[in-house]
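INFO batch 0412 | record 1 of 1 | parsing
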Amino acid sequence: MSAALPVLDRLDRVKLVHGPTPLEALPRLSDRLGGPRIYVKRDDCTGFAAGGNKGRKLEYLMGAALKAGADTVITVGAVQTNHGRQTAAAAAKLGLRCVLVLTDSVPGRSAAYHASGNFLLDRLTGAECRVVPAEVNGEEEMERIADELRRAGRVVYVIPGGGSSPIGALGYAVAGEEIAAQTKAAGIRPSAVVHATGSNGTQVGLLLGLAASGIPVTGVTVRRTKADQEARVKALLERTVTELQLDPKLKDCVVEADDRFVGPGYGQPSPGMVEAVRLAAECEGLFLDPVYTGKGFAGLIQRIREGRYRKDDSVVFVHTGGLPGLFVYDEAFA
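INFO prediction complete | emitting tokens
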């Protein structure tokens, strides 16, 4: 166990996800790309609310909400937010009211984008969905609505976008610990763990969970520049270590982000994403999503083609879920 995880035993937790999730080899895809040996951490198989990485964070975030006596949770994301879908489902399971502030921030999307996929699942849970224009600051709108609800007598627990608070980030360290244990048991020493990085919490969690093993983590950005993303990850890492009183040495974890695969913008299809989604499906029957894992895997493919890993190396890709979003991007694969 890493120096980070004993703290989790002192945090309130609501059991949501199925774990540990599998670590699977992708031999046909590895052969197609000429090496290295590629493995996938199947956090799309966490089970709860169609799976995905956010369930791990929400186990502790919802635990904190219940401890605070909340009757309402509120969070923010894009219209097709995976985090919003799982937050809404967790609230439904626990009998809490859920308000989702959804920014319509991806231009040029179809009618299906605004009616189906994650947005449909949000509404099925009974969540209150407040869609706001792209120019509205979602975090500020969330805080405004939270104050409005408090004045109306509600006890509100605010969950940042992506569940990326110190509690949420530390919750995802469990996934890093699982990867370290699974690769060790299989006799694998990964050259890297690669994943899509957006709201920072997943990358911070992986850094904390893998720190004791020394396995490096590379985040492929889906929104921001390398410098901006690395600065945000470092800030959340330092905040998590400080607020949860972890080993101060964990602040020195090496943060790496690769910003070459964002494409036209957040949520916007790119040729690399389309190729990555197709290759994973054709070679392994593995379905990625267009917003996160598709671009993250595009990053891994390109890094392999650039020779960053030897043929006999092993690399782990973290599949963070997001399948419902694939169905509202059908035109990208026409």
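INFO post-check: Residues 73 and 157 are 5 Å apart (CA to CA).
INFO record closed
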